[in-house]
Model the fold of this input.
Amino acid sequence: MQKIGFIGLGIMGKPMAKNLLKAGYRLVVFDMNPEPVRELTQLGAEVAKNAAEVARESEIIITMLPNSPDVKAAVLGQNGILEGAEPGKILIDMSSIAPGASQEIAAKVAEKGVKMLDAPVSGGEPKAIDGTLSIMVGGEEELFNQVKDLLGCMGKSVVWIGPVGSGNVTKLANQIIVALNIIAMSEALVLAQKVGVAPERVYQAIRGGLAGSTVLDAKAPLILKRQFAPGFRIELHLKDLRNAMETGNQFDVPLKFTSLATEVLQALNETGKGRLDHGAIVQYFEKLSGV
Ligand code: NAD
Done:
């Protein structure tokens, strides 16, 4: 089996890396946080002292980091992947970052003969654990075909989209849709509560109708139980919406509702709620309505 490098063992990266071990891949890992590294070591992964060493020790390197600057630092920075990677190695960045940043990083690593795919995911921690993520991939189709089975150990739906950066364009579309869904359900549930109609009953009544959705079923029960431990942090969703706004500005697309959603998430972030799950968006509407 090929040796895979894995950098970024957070909420998503840790279970994804575990699934690769389960599938029989040899793994070499690195994270700035020693705790998940220790956990992976106990399961049989090797540890590297930095990203450059991961790149030296593995054939395919996966990154699962918060945002564009983190991926740039891990790939292009001191002791980064590019320092350790030889021509022929493959980089798969599974983080959700700005599409323009994916293209910039891919161009830089190509100068050293390293090929890159951007392959962000959707589905959250539960699907990362089950290995049933949706993975949206940008880059050369031939390269995608080479790593499709590897990605299949982490995801149920693995779809090639187009050239590098298009995986992250798709992820921005996904994040706009998810944010606006959570905002809509939050506003609606707060309205019901303020009028005096039990939000639990409203959810039970509407989930089988046209308003039913994967987002509603994933988030409404957590909102109703007031469970706001992440999951997907508001600060990360805000990062995605800002990347969407930046991309919209570049291409002259006025993202009116994404702009409003960005304001909502920014207000929550500024009041210390950035590390809560994005289900806590409901608190913005509760505060507005005095619930
Ligand atoms: P996280 O903050 O839990 O994990 C990020 C990990 O990267 C941390 O362990 C951190 O120590 C490590 N890290 C940061 N910079 C590093 C560096 N330079 N070198 C080595 N390690 C470094 O984040 P997460 O929730 O796992 O999300 C990761 C990515 O996946 C983000 O882009 C996020 O938007 C996306 N995503 C998250 C979810 C979710 O539900 N959490 C779902 C889909 C996509």
